[in-house]
Write a structure and sequence with these properties.
alpha+beta, four-stranded mixed sheet, 3 domains, six-stranded antiparallel beta barrel, about 30% strand, single chain
Length: about 475
Amino acid sequence: MASIYSRSYFTIVAVDAPDANHGLAGLPGTSLPRTYDMTKLDFSPVCSMIKAPVFESQFNIKEWHRRCWTFQERILSNRNIVFFEGRVFWECQQSVWTEELGDAPDGLVASRSSRRNLNDRYSFDFLKYPDLHIYSKLVSIYNGRLLTHQTDGLNAFSAILHALGRSFRGGFLHGMPELFFDFAMLWKPLYPQKRRNGPFPSWSWVSWEGNVALSLLKKSHRLIYDGQDFGAAIEITPEVTWYKTSERTGKRICIDNSYISFQLMREDSSIYLPSGWSRAKPAGSPLSSTTVPEDFCIFRHGNIPDVEFLHPVPVATEPFFQDSEPWSNRLRFKAERSVLYLGPVFKGYPQKDGWSNVWNGFVSSCLLFSVFDKQGQWCGVIHSNVADEGEMTPGQECDLIIISSGRAHRDRNDAVKVWLEEWKFVEEIRELDVYEFYNILWVENKGDVTYRKALGRIWKTAWNRQRIESVDIVLG
């Protein structure tokens, strides 16, 4: 399907249709006539205005916006003819034109009214390098949609994964990018979710139905130099060696979680750069008032000359190999484990309302809970899957395992603290210039298999005070 949509001349997107059998209004002999009344205001013989077009938003959602299978047709097609609110508009990678607005003459740049926002929810570029932010955006939007058959949770996203896999070395394991596996494991629910039926692993977002986000991604993964940031404000580093298992042969293979080897190239000039990469000074002046560090450099790749990177990444001169091996839904690894206790709701974390297709209405965001040790000392936070604190039991044991570590430095405006809420409000760590923490999973055991319950962060100093054991984990 990725090839079909990406190579189509254009795709007809029937947003107004309540189901797949509705058809398109205005086709003679096969459907009802189509009518569209344009609101026009005449101020004088030479001055007229029309009402601005109404585009899609959370306030005019159709059934099309709620369905998973319709998502990939809009994302992967280079050009779309969209039927929405009785109106037809054209959408391509650069512009959006509605039927009541005339096109710009040949040779002129599209006006602001028709120029497409390249960061909108349906924009997608077939890049030669892996863009983790695009992946995160697509996952969040897609997973907030609905399926008739929950077992299609990954099938309806497979075309998008196939397209992304052309530039993600190692591909995807149950929807998770192997190259950035530590980052992918940091997904969290935005609104309360429902468990999907099917053979999906608890450690992947696909096992849950509802909007998700990769925690701290905007501050922890910086790849493109934007003239303002000279690197990631939060550093994520591996603590675990992940293994996957072939269902066909039973062989265990180490997951290609090698993002850190590329990030180290930015700090250590003695590391040999991969083929095609070179170090250089940025072409323009920084957009911020911050002075550029004397040793700051950007990285360029010969096949992508117009992009300034903060560090190298694998670049696909040819599309990366798409792995067709059937992999088990269980991960195997060795991790540090400890038991802490659930505390009250973390009051410094604002609860916001947003639209949820799962609940078909506006709902409150999931709550953040504090975690304490047996002596009552604060240790960290847990991202829950509930919006009502009455659904959680303070004082219950939390079986926690480390999956990666993080390090954040204080900045002038305390902007990083907004992303690490506990750093801003918890007295024990508020004045630290450097906040070091572990990313952890709250897990539960069922027989020999461990399952994810929630994601959290634990202050390193607090973790090191606990009784810690090294355990072999089979995460299902």
